[in-house]
Amino acid sequence: MQKIEAVIQPSKLDAVKDALVELGVLGITIFEVRGHGRQKGHTEFYRGREYAVDLLPKIKLELVVTEEMAEKAIQAIIGAARTGRIGDGKIFVSKIDEAIRIRNDERGEIAL
Amino acid sequence: MTMREEYERRMGAIRRDFDTGGDGVAAVAARSALVDELVGRLWAAEVESDAALAKGMVVVAVGGYGRAQLFPYSDIDLLFCAEKGEGERAKDAIRRVSQSLWDCGMRVSPVARKVVECERFAADNAEFGLSLLDRRMIAGDAAVFAKLDEKVRGKMMVKDAKVLRGEIATLTKERHAKYGDTLFHLEPNIKDCPGGLRDANVCGWLRMLKGTSPSDGEEFEEAMGFLAATRCFLHYRHERDDNALDWRAQDAAAELSVGLGRGRKAGGVDPAYWMRVYFRHARAVERSLLREFESNDIVLAPLELRRVKLAATAGFRIKDGRLVLDVAAGTDPAAEPEIVLAMFAAMAKTGARLDAESEERIGASIPRLSANLEEGPGLWRRLSAILTGERAGVALRAMHALGLLELILPEFHGIDALVIRDAYHRYTVDEHTFVVIDTLHGLEADPGKDAPDWRVKFGSMLRELQNPGLLYLAALLHDTGKGRAGDHHAVESARMAKGVLARLEMDAYDAALVLRLIEAHLEMSAALRRDIFDADTVRGFAGRVQTHELLRMLTLFTYADIQAVHPDALTPWKAENLWRLSMNAANQLDRNVDEERVHMGGKDERIVRVLALLPGAQKEAERFLEGFPERYLKTRPPEAIRQHFEMTTKFDEEPFQIVFQHGASMSEITLVTRDRPRLFAGMAAALAAWGMNVVTADAYANAAGVVVDSFRFTDTFRTLELNVSERERFVASVRDLVAGKTSVEKMLSGRRRAKRKAPRVTVTTKIDFDETASSHSTLMQVVAQDVPGLLRAMSVTLSALGHNVEVALVDTEGETAIDVFYLTHDRHQLSEAQETELSAALLEAIAENAR
């Protein structure tokens, strides 16, 4: 099993969600987050006042999938979230040792 | 047959009776009687095996069971009450009785107490104390029950009556708060929501404490019948004590006409209709509750009665925290729209509610109010006073419940208790509307020192609105279109609002703003779903908004509209994004005006609409429009543009064409003429000389060198309001000044200066230049303290240095003036040296004006 964490543009959430659902991904956790990558913040002026825009709004997705599904899910996220511009986001992948369904204590991939 | 089998068989019979007859009250009484019988038998068996239990112990039904209202899956609250120490001996018997009932499939909550333990109300165990109010002997020693009854009735309900009432009020308020203080939920919990069965119980308790009948008349009993049937239906449907009336349950209940009694129709009724019946009954319970609260001096919202000073002739007064209509010998104040609406304005200001009698009198006077109601500006003034009151939501809900809101705005009828099913909304459409208004007023409160930027900014945006009534009116009407068929409710709501605005005879500028706000009320939410830092998204959104005034209102509206969907809909993340989009769009609005110009040849819908108004002069009108900033076309109604064009055809008679419109809160003067130096400065100076305070202004020119300069201003000394004859003199003197017939200096020599109050916020003057916003002019933004004469001081300085104002956008946010000028010097952008010189001159002029 692998955990995929993806930080994407908020405007791409619907497209990414649809692509993952179409692929058969059953569960996704979504967080509203702020952050910055290499592209650091800048300053905006609004009617004579200065405001720092150092953390940009992003959406973070978390999903745990089977080994077999992992690459397909990654490609689906890339396909739906890419615009080619700076700020499209990042994907992080890590190994998961165990998954447990709290309701009935099922373990392993069946619990996903 | 075991007891369980018997219980199940007889419960089956109760259910069949309910399925056939639909009588919820009968079903709960029947279950209660059945349980009485079984408990009685079980206790008798215990007494038979231990005769000592016959004395000193009583089995008492309490809570809902005590009221003989046992819903199919409700818990059974039993009190085993001992006179003295008999409880210890009865422990095993109590366990066996409870166990047997559990084995039958009942959920029993047994409690063992001594009589003496029941005589005081303990706030830390309020539930038990309240359950004792509904007590009924089932089995055992009647003498013990008589003692218990005496203790509860004679001691707890007398000595602790005040504490009990206070606890009932606190618990009720907390429960209501959990449900957003409204009964209008799309999926209500019919037990705990406001207007639900728990509120009906509260009414019963309060009446009991007063020693009056537990019933509250026919309307209340009908509501009880409906709610009882619905709760039975839900219990049977969910097979547990689950009282959530979700959408599927609503469909099923409507199909079975649950609770409609003799009105039950074969094949059922429309779910929307069935829900309206539910809300009607819930309202009846809520009304009853409020009446009980009132007669027990329980106040639901803190009052700020000092805010209202009433004349003796007002027709109503405030008595004991309630609004009370006078009783007059002649005309009944309840039938006088002015008095009634003023009363609701006082309610909106203070949160004080009507007393029960006044409420009834107004309700009964609706037909007479309808006959006496006069529309027009007077009605708008009174409606605006209600909408802008901090507790407008309280007043609007009360008006809606009495049918008064629909009398003024029949457009509201279609969304009365309307359930629109989607995954997001929590409230009915009318209630959502009131929550939007509550949310906007919530922004008036001090945000606190740790509040995020967006919260502070939204608060100041609201406080700084020139005419907040317009925002509230748009909020009130924004979803009325949902009551009509069609997919575009925003367009439909705007269409319906046109009728309202016409009846209120609202100023054309204000009416256009309200309509645009309603029409565009989803556009900012839509933009938020895109990349709000993307230049195209921002440009597209700003292009649809066009003015700072509309942007501010739309930002506030969007904040409240999202928040009113359900309490968690507006996360700080979303609110921050909303603020960022608003800020980016505001910057965009100032920076693209000069570049985006009208060009003929395209098929812009707005051009088509203007040309359609000028059938015989197409070519001339096209020449007139050519080269104006698009902002001009987008912010003026076609009729106003036609008027401006027609003014250009009269240049031979009078080269300085002026149109002036006086308004109660804001007036507007527009100059149409051929471009020449010092025009803008002349207008600004003339207005300053007359003591007018410019709130917004814009100056545009077309390719043929025709300028349209418009100023919206407030009349500081009320000169034009109090002296109608002065209006002509005002227009003539403005014309003389721009025509050069009189000098600025001469006019300013007689200038009166208003006494300046110390500003609440100190604004430091800031001047910025941007050479990239336009290819041929320099953008200058000046942010300064808004004081009378500021615009004059700036524009005179610009003229003196020979700079030409290509486009001007003058705006005010509270005490901050934000003025943007696109400047040229000899048809070119300003040089760096010219910018430095201008900056210094302006700082000096602004400081001098402020002295």
Report the span from N to C terminus of chain B: 100 Å
Characterize the largest beta sheet of chain A: strand count, sense, and whether it forms a barrel: 4 strands, antiparallel
The amount of beta strand of chain A, in percent, is 35-45%
State the distance separating the first and last CA atoms of chain A: 9 Å
Distinct helical segment count of chain A: 2
Category by helix and strand content of chain B = alpha+beta
What count of domains describes the coordinates of chain A? 1
Strand order of the largest sheet of chain A: 2-5-1-6
Strand segment count of chain A: 6
Structural class of chain A: alpha+beta
| Inertia-based shape of chain A | elongated
Which pair of chains has the greatest number of interface residues, and how are they split between the two chains?
Answer: A-B, 17 and 24 residues
Radius of gyration of chain A over alpha carbons? 17 Å
Mean pLDDT level of chain B: 88
Query: How much helical structure, as a percent, in the residues of chain B?
Result: 40-55%
Low-confidence stretches of chain B: none
In this structure, how is the largest beta sheet of chain B organized? 8 strands, antiparallel
